[in-house]
Amino acid sequence: METGYFYLTKNLDEYKFEIIGKPGNIIYQFKLNEEFEGVGFDGHKHKIKFVVENEDFVEVHEYLDGPRKEKPRVEHDSMMSHGLVVPRNEMKMF
C-alpha cells in the first residue's frame, strides 16, 4: 500500500486495527496471538494472526480461498514506535 495509514486501538484485551488506503479500507478486530478469519485486500478469506515480538508487530496471513490458496503464508512486519504502528514494507513468505 503506497498511501494510507494504520490505526490501532485497544479495549481491554481486544484490538481494532484499521487499514485505510488506496485499495480500500479493512478493519480487523482481534486478540493478540489468536487466529481469526478475515477478508484481505484481495477480497478473499484469510486466516490471520497478529503477534507482538519485542518491538515488532507481526501480521500473519494464510490464504483460505482464491488463486493464492496454495501459496505459502505471508508475514507483514511493522515496528511499534511510541504507540504507533510503523510499516517496514517487508513481506516474508513461508
Structure notes:
- The protein has 94 residues and is an all-beta fold.
- It has one domain (4-93): Calycin beta-barrel core domain (Lipocalin, Beta Barrel), CATH 2.40.128.20.
- Helices cover 0% and strands 66% of the residues.
- The strands form two sheets. Strands 4-5-6-7-8 form a five-stranded antiparallel beta sheet, with no helix packed on it.
- Strand 5 and strand 6 form a beta hairpin.
- The chain is globular, with a radius of gyration of 13 Å.
- The model has no long low-confidence stretch (mean pLDDT 79).
Write the layout of secondary structure elements.
Layout: E1 4-11, E2 14-21, E3 24-30, E4 36-39, E5 45-53, E6 56-63, E7 74-81, E8 84-93
Antiparallel strand pairs: 1-2, 2-3, 4-5, 5-6, 6-7, 7-8
Which labels suit this protein?
mainly beta; 8 strands; 94 residues; single chain; three-stranded antiparallel β-sheet
Secondary structure tally, helices: 0
Uncertain spans: none
What percentage of residues falls in helices of 4 or more residues? under 10%
**Strand count:** 8
